[in-house]
Predict the structure.
Amino acid sequence: LLALWEVELKIKRVTAGVLAALLAMQIVVSGLSVPTYAKETDSEPGVEEPIEEPVEEPVQEEEPQQPVKPQKPKVTVSADYAVLYNVESGEMLFEKNAKKRTPTASTAKLMTAVAACHLFKENATFRVGKELNLVSWDASRAGLKKGNRLSFSQIMSALLLPSGCDAAYTIAVKGGRKLAGNAKLSPKKAVAHFEQYANRLAKKLGLVNSHFVNPDGYDAKNQYSCARDMAILAKEALRQPRIYRVTKKASVKVKLLRGGWRNWTNTNAHLNKKSPYYIKECIGLKTGTTSKAGACLVSAVRKAGQVYVCVIMHTQKDKRFADSYRLLHYAMKYGIN
């Protein structure tokens, strides 16, 4: 029993020693732990550092989108031949059989007017004579009588407003006699001289599909033009103040140099305020109708510094103004790029 007690006592001592050693190791490890210190700063004691506000990233603005241009609608006309032309840029905005030859009807009077501007000065006067016998019985007239005397502006009004074929022949005869240097040249020969000059001038202006044999546009063999040429001719007419000062008027009342008073109304419905086809920006130019040419119209408008010419050839009389109205409004809305 004594021996067993001694063994048990030794075991207790060993156990106590082990526990003491473990406790000592724990104390040493705890003593080696790194103490936590406050973060060092450069600020003076007792002075709080300002709190930095968070910096926001700049918001990049989106570039404004360019406005989308409205698409140009498709435009159509009833006429067999047509052109819409920007005089300032030279651009053809619309063409339909534009280079095909067709009779001109009274739109040829624009060629007569342009030729007269090239031949005569502002102070020229015109005496009506036997050339009235050359006017067809069913042609449109300004009511001129043999012996009447007109100024240049008056003969232009008689030619371009009521579409006077009598005025066309009076201009042609005086012009032909001047070109021939023969004041007694017969009316028929004088007209031939004038038309030769008109054709030379037409080529000089760039009319490549046109030929004129009479000054009034009445149906005749070898009397033709095309819509594109008529647009070019209209451009030249608009360069002549003595023409467009007349063509932009709805009507005039004039006292002839000899022959009394005349009232002439423009045949262009675009200038008639009572017409459904009235266009306030319209500045001319010329109507025309014959059995072979059909109903024709050369018209022009000026808007926002641009001048547009519309040529309508060979359609029905009640449709030429509708076609022209449609094209000219298209030009004024979409023509400027």
User: Anything to note?
Assistant: The first strand starts at residue 81 and ends at 86.
